[in-house]
Amino acid sequence: EKGTYPHYMLKEMYEQPGVVRKISQAYEDQKGELTLDVAICKALNEADRLYIIAAGTSYHAGLIGKQYIEKIAGIPVEVHISSEFGYNMPLLSEKPLFLFITQSGETADSRQVLVKVKALGHPTITLTNVAGSTLSREADYTLLLHAGPEIAVASTKAYTAQVAVLAIVAYVAAKEQGKTVDFDLKNELAIAANAIQTIMDSKEEMEQIAHEFLEVTRNAFFIGRNLDFYVSLEGALKVKEISYIQAEGFAGGELKHGTIALIEEGTPVFALATQQAVSLNIRGNVKEVVARGANPCIISMEGLAEVGDRFVLPKVHALLTPLVAVIPLQLISYYAALHRDCDVDKPRNLAKSVTVE
Ligand code: F6R
């Protein structure tokens, strides 16, 4: 039940700090160390490449998971949109391991890939929120999100849960292989959970931003580099699906290769600047769009903030920035939908689980 919340989406956004904490506990062994099932560790150790298969928001989480698993555990990863995989299957490595990311565990596009790769004899894992769902039953192994039921059509807490579990998968896989990991993920997840709470407590600020930037516009752009790029894709998807504003997420450097032609006087451009190594570059992209009349909203992070940034996120570990950078974008899309009189929890044309291919 949504209780005192006006919408499931708001309730589910508020649940995110608790979900991150719960995941951290759920993946702990008796000694309090992060762990995965022995069989899943074995499958990860035996694989020479991981193929992540997903759709929509889950695909966006997969893009982040790829970075985690490659950077922390050193296992090569490819991420594929499930609907494309069937007819555009890449050449597979010798020992592929498939990881299906699906909140509902019912997405038909993802299931058809599962059926296909199982028939080829490859091992499969489903990362899902729903124990007993189709993809969970049909895969060799299941990783659970522990996010609790997600009712709003727009996915919020499942996304943060996916990112958190993928970080744990990368971390445990690295340790299993005897790689040194120079941070304590449990501790960093706890810090991120608190940071999410702090941002949720600033929701009036996001309502104000939605009011200023999105109340009347017909389009909006989201830009970021590195991990911020993937979060930009997710922010744009949230805005599209619940407020019906045409929104696009871009890699900061790609905008000038065509799309910048769409920037007009007052076009909202949300820029994420949480990545230290590319902070100057993304700020350069903001200057480029401002010179063409854009209305910029820079969301940066403590330690990287500059005068004029519209919102400054609490500092978290460099790899966990997606967990916090997505929160203002979720809130901004929520308020944009409210201000535009849209049905937040049940947007037009959308279903919570998509069981047709
Ligand atoms: C976006 C959204 C969809 C789903 C997609 C995949 O907010 O809800 O993009 O993420 O339909 O669904 P699952 O994860 O259930 O396979």
Automatic annotation (TrEMBL):
Catalytic activity: D-fructose 6-phosphate + L-glutamine = D-glucosamine 6-phosphate + L-glutamate
One GO BP: UDP-N-acetylglucosamine metabolic process
Function: Catalyzes the first step in hexosamine metabolism, converting fructose-6P into glucosamine-6P using glutamine as a nitrogen source.
Subcellular location: Cytoplasm
Domain SIS: 40-179, 209-347
Protein name: Glutamine--fructose-6-phosphate aminotransferase [isomerizing]
Domain of life: Bacteria
Subunit structure: Homodimer.
Gene: glmS
Full protein: residues contained: 244 to 600 of 600
Main location: cytoplasm
Active-site annotation: K352
EC number(s) from the headed UniProt entry: 2.6.1.16
Annotated keywords: Aminotransferase, Cytoplasm, Glutamine amidotransferase, Repeat, Transferase
GO molecular function: carbohydrate derivative binding; glutamine-fructose-6-phosphate transaminase (isomerizing) activity
A single cellular component GO annotation: cytosol
